Amino acid sequence: MIRTIKMIRMKRTFTAFVVIALIVQSCQRVPVSNRRQLHLLPESTMLSMSLDNYGKFIKEHQVISHTANAKMVQRAGEKIAVATESLLRELGYQDRIPEFQWEFNLVEDTSQNAWCMPGGKVVVYTGLLPVTQNETALAVVMGHEIAHAVARHGNERMSQTLALYAGGMALDVALSQKPEQTRNLFLAAYGLGASVGVMLPFSRKHESEADRIGLIFMAKAGYNPREAINFWQRMEALSGGSPPEFLSTHPSHQTRIRDIKEKYLPEALKYYQGE
Known about the structure:
The protein has one domain. About 35% of the residues are buried. It is globular, with a radius of gyration of 20 Å. By secondary structure, the protein is α+β, with helices and mostly antiparallel strands. The chain starts with a helix and ends in a 7-residue tail after the last helix.
């Protein structure tokens, strides 16, 4: 009996050691911020899930083509994509560039939203355009969403969630045993779902990091990052009774505007070659 208990303890110790070793090996750096992050999932799997879910989304929604607004989305997206890949080369992350097969679509939807899945699949909703009002403000949003994908925030969110709520369940097991829940988890990781609880602080961290990186992307693409202040002020005016920051996956508008003014804008302006 005593020997059995010792063996069980040894196995648990060994398992814990393996888990810790895997976590250490899975830590990567975020481009620009250089923050360490946890990646338990192969990026190839994230790309595969992205293509599958993106394809389903496009089939189920009305894509706007050949209009002035659709061309604006395409134009802004292409400029930011070129700037993003250029910066990745400069920072030594050129190995990530082949992951991105960029697509930029304007979709008919009244939501004030946009997102970018792994692989550079970007969608802007028509409901966002009355708030952006111009191409530079649109670049604020698109740069932010592209920053989420470049920083692999979705992989990090899913890794954290699997570690916390699935007992470290491997993604392939989760996909085979709970395909619908895993798909919902993927969508939530890219802002297409909702969650409340322990994960919220991570999401706010990701949002702030995407603000910083996104401003650099848009500035390097030739868009004036100062427009971010005007855009977020308009969003604040429209938000009305937003929930308090501790109940939101996003920083409050006041926090976001303050951080942009004091922290991120001076850095982004170094990349801006405009007036």
